[in-house]
Amino acid sequence: MLFLIKWFLGFLLGGDGGGKQLPPCPPGIPMIGNLVGMLMNRPTTKWIVRVMNDMKTDIACFRFGRVHVIAITSDEIAREVVKEKDSVFADRPDSYSAEYISCGYKGVVFDEYGERQMKMKKVMTSELMSTKALDLLRDVRNLESDNLLAYVLNLYEKGGLVNVRDIVCTHTHSVKMRLLFGRKHFKETTKDGSLGPMEKEHFDAIFKALDCFFSFYIADYYSLFRGWNVQGEEVVLREAVDIIAKYNKMIIDEKIGLWRKNCDANKNVPKDWLDILFTLKDDKGKPLLTPEEITHLSIDLDVVGIDNAVNVIEWTLAEMLNQREILEQAVEEIDRVVGKDRLVQESDVPKLNYVKACIRETLRLHPTNPFLVPHMARQDTTLAGYFVPKGSHILVSRPGIGRNPKTWDEPLIYKPERHLTGDEVMLTEPDMRLVSFGTGRRGCVGTKLGTYMIVTLLGRLLQGFDWTLPPKTGKVELVESKENLFMAKPLLACVEPRLDPNIGSGNNNFNSAVGEHMFDKVLTPSDVGKLNRLVIPKQHAENYFPLEDNQTGTVLDFEDRTGKM
């Protein structure tokens, strides 16, 4: 009873800005504020932007219980948050979804700003996302880009109809698996290089967790509801994160066992991010990270950004298919910069300005997520001249900023040329006129990797194939899903190869990507005794089958381009 009285008095005494002028607030109910609107209008992220448009304001204060949630749709105010007052808004708010995804705020993305978070971020920045680290694993990314072309060509041979979302999901998950774990599949490989049952379950769980993260939970504003599953989404989130953790832990435990067993022999170059993390030492020569910290980092690396490439490529191709002159101009640039005797490489990215302009325009008009990861005010402060109480949650709206008519001419029209204003087009946007990657103290550390992956992926798809709409399809229906910012229906398109399969030389050419299957069947343990001699083409042996020496001899551990062992 005393708890309820104290809780009730807290609402009466602490529910407003203490007489200071808060940002414009939509009408609410005494004590609970806009909580009913939050619960009745799902997804809440879209409702918030609609309310702000109706109010004709670029900043608004929504009160959910005692918590002030400040939403922003202006680039100018966003700069104030992530640049001018970056230190004031460096913390993350308590959130059921963030707590569960990060195993109790123990990763880089959701941890409170402090020594532990800075340590983990430094590891990611200097050891995993540095130029040296990205160069080390470039062949891994190229391998999966090659595999993507083979996968699409296989679909062409089966009829030519491609589910764009499906192929990009397959590619993105495969790249993340290779980078993080050094393998494409958890256990069993697939004959055509697609995701197997385990990979599909893992990938679906990541997307469910991301959708749940941007939901608004009543438990975030009334802690007494924690664990009640009032909205039904808490169980979905828990199940999704448990699936991700189960698969990650399976490989991490396996890696730990191998490293402990062969600690003296593991002097070769690391093959993946886990290898790098295991080799890090502090100034006393002891492991820098505990197995628990490595697990937390692996979930951050697994979850964050994986949806960006899927959304960007699908929306970009959809807009191009509706405006073929844009598609043709992008292909013309690729042919001019790269030519037709080799495939697009990461080194070509700086020169593919029109392709990047198309991607920037997609990030502006069709952002992947509704908001940046929320910030929280560490002290009383102001934004745009309005009072912002300590503890307020700050939401920077990606679509709100990207579609703001005060910033952009004809904001709902897809026009890549609006970004061709300098010598080199960058996907980042320092002035926050569009939100491509997070910025500031809590900004995205994977900006360079994300740029390489998205531009190279789109470049190879446009270079390798002619894209057309299916017969009897006039235009792509450019409609957002009701639940998130993805297309309501997966994009289906017809493809036809546009390059000679025998072009070029070396490893990264169209022929090697789609034509060289090293084995006709998946090798099994029973086959080993039948192999008196195994002949591997020199270029494959040197680049994709590095030999690992240990005290007992040479270990052969390899996959061909289609994942066959």
Automatic annotation (TrEMBL):
Give Gene Ontology CC terms.
nucleus
Q: Which UniProt keywords apply?
A: DNA-binding, Heme, Iron, Metal-binding, Monooxygenase, Nucleus, Oxidoreductase, Signal, Transcription, Transcription regulation
Which InterPro entries does the UniProt entry name for this protein?
B3_DNA-bd (IPR003340), Cyt_P450 (IPR001128), Cyt_P450_CS (IPR017972), Cyt_P450_E_grp-I (IPR002401), Cyt_P450_sf (IPR036396), DNA-bd_pseudobarrel_sf (IPR015300)
Please state where this protein is localized: Nucleus
Q: Does the keyword Isomerase apply?
A: no
Which cofactors go with this protein? Answer: heme
Hydrolase recorded as keyword? no
Residues annotated as binding heme: C444
Q: Name one GO molecular function term.
A: DNA binding
Using the UniProt record, give the first listed, main subcellular location: nucleus
Q: Which PROSITE patterns match?
A: CYTOCHROME_P450 (PS00086)
Signal sequence range:
1-17
Q: Which family does the record assign?
A: Belongs to the cytochrome P450 family.
What protein does this entry describe? Answer: Uncharacterized protein
Q: Which organism is it from?
A: Brassica carinata
